[in-house]
Amino acid sequence: MLKIAPSILAADFAKLGEEIRSADASGADWIHIDVMDNHFVPNLSFGAPVIQSVRPATRLTFDVHLMTEKPETLFPAMMDAGADRLTVHAEACTHLHRTVHQIRELGLPAGVALNPHTPLSVLDYVLGDVDLILIMTVNPGFGGQSFISGMLPKIRELRGKLNALGRPDVDIQVDGGITDQTAPLVVEAGANVLVAGSYVFGSSDRRSAIASLRG
C-alpha cells in the first residue's frame, strides 16, 4: 500500500503542532521528521525535545530520519520522545549491521538511507535485517531541491533485489523532489513510501496535494 509521509522540515516551525494536525487531517499516513546535526549534513534542524513536544498532535507514525553522525547515540532519546521508526544513513555507520540491530532491539522498525552517490551494494549484507530502505533523490540537508531522475534505475534495481530475496515486504521510501509529476515515476520503479515536504506544506490545499501523490 502506498504511504505518504509529509516532511515537517517544510512546515511552519512557529506552529509545528498545528501543521502536523493539518497533515493528519489531509490524509497523511506518516509524519516524516528529518533530524539534522550540521555535521553529517550542512544544516541543523531539531532533536528529541521538539519531537516530544509535538507528539501529542497526532497518532500517526513518527518516521524519524537521522541525518546525523553517530546516530546510535540518539536512539534512546528518540524513542522516549515518541519516534515510531528510525532510519539511519549507511554513510554515517561504521558498523551498519550492528546499528540496524540496535534499532530492532528497541522494538522499532529499522531503516537505512542511501545518498544519491552511494551504491546499493553497501546493503548486500543487511537486506535481510531491515524494514525500510530510503533512497535519497536529492542530496540531503535542505528541503525544496529538484528531483534527481538518475535515481529511478536505483529504485528499480533495489525492488528487484528485494523480490529476489523474498523480501517484498521491505518498504522502499523515496525522499527529495516528490511532486505529482515525480511520484508516479518512483512508484512505477518500485517505491511505496513517498516523503514530500514542500509539495504538501507549501500547498494551499493539502488534502488535494496528498491525494495527487497517490495518483
Helix and strand arrangement:
Elements: E1 3-6, H1 16-25, E2 30-36, H2 48-54, E3 61-67, H3 75-81, E4 85-89, H4 96-105, E5 110-114, E6 132-136, H5 152-164, E7 171-175, H6 183-189, E8 193-196, H7 198-201, H8 206-214
Parallel strand pairs: 1-8, 2-3, 3-4, 4-5, 5-6, 6-7, 7-8
Helix pairs in contact: 2-3, 5-6
Description:
This protein is an alpha/beta fold. The chain has a single domain, classed as Alpha-Beta Barrel (TIM Barrel), CATH 3.20.20.70. 31% of the residues lie in helices and 20% in strands. The model has no long low-confidence stretch (mean pLDDT 96).
Discrete helix count: 8
Count of folded domains: 1
Strand order of the largest sheet: 1-8-7-6-5-4-3-2
- CATH architecture classification: Alpha-Beta Barrel
CATH fold group: TIM Barrel
